[in-house]
Amino acid sequence: MKNIKKNSKKRHEVDPLKGDLSSIFSEKGWKRVKFELKPKNKSITIRMSEEMLDAIKAKAEEEGLDYQKWIRSSIEDALNKSA
Predict the structure, then answer these.
(1) What pTM does this model have?
(2) Which residues in 20-56 are b (16+ Cβ under 10 Å) and which e?
(3) Coil, helix or strand at residue 46
(4) Are 56 and 71 in contact (CB under 8 A)?
(5) CA-CA 20 to 30 A from 1: which of 10, 17, 28, 36?
(6) What is the pLDDT along the chain (83 residues), one digit of tens a residue?
(7) What are the boundaries of each domain within the chain?
(8) Which letter does DSSP use for residue 18 in this model?
């Protein structure tokens, strides 16, 4: 029991945020994240070729997104550019 208390005390003595943290905050490997806070309470149907859908799914996978989220994000980006 004494060993556990000593180890936990030592963990708290060292401040993990002390010193140079620049290596932690490099942009290498980071991905942009968008938070979708509003509920998705409307559904639409859109027709497209199988090839287009496959291309959308491939692009979404490259970006680490579900293809439907990628479509919403692309539409949102287009709307923000035109505003």
Answers:
(1) 0.57
(2) eeeeeeeeeeeeeeeeeeeeeeeeeeeeeeeeeeeeb
(3) coil
(4) yes
(5) 17
(6) 555 555 555 555 667 667 777 766 666 666 666 677 788 899 999 999 999 999 999 999 999 999 999 999 999 889 888 87
(7) 50-83
(8) S
